[in-house]
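Example 3.2
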Amino acid sequence: MATALRPLQTAIYSKLAASGPLTALVSGVYDEVPENAVFPLVSFGSVVETASDTHGRQGLDCLVTLHVWSKAMGFGEAYDVFAALDAALDRASLAVAGWTDVSIRHEQHQALKDPDPDVRHINAQYRVWLTRTP
C-alpha cells in the first residue's frame, strides 16, 4: 500500500497557509510547534490511513486531526480560529501530489480545556478520500 501521508500534509498545509482569514488570526500552522510560538496557532495531529480500493485502483480513507490552540480567556478566540480553519478546508479543492479524486470533509471537532488552565484547545478531524494516480 502506498501512503499519502507526506503529500496530504503538504496539501493541507498549503491550503491553510494560503487562507488569509486564518493567517490573520494565528501566528502559524505547525507540524512541530516551536517552544517560543505565539498563541493562537494551529498544529497538525495524527493521521489514520485506511485502504479503500475501488475498481482495481488504490484508494485511501484518511482521518486527519488538526489542533487549534489559544491562550485567550474563554473559547471565543479558539472558536474564531476554528471557523477560519474549517472555511479553508471543509469541502475544499485539495491538490495532493500523486493522488486524484481528492475529497475533504469536516468530520467532528471538540472544544477542550487543556490541563494548563490558560490554554483552550479545539481538536478538529477531517475525513479525506483519495485515489492513487494511475
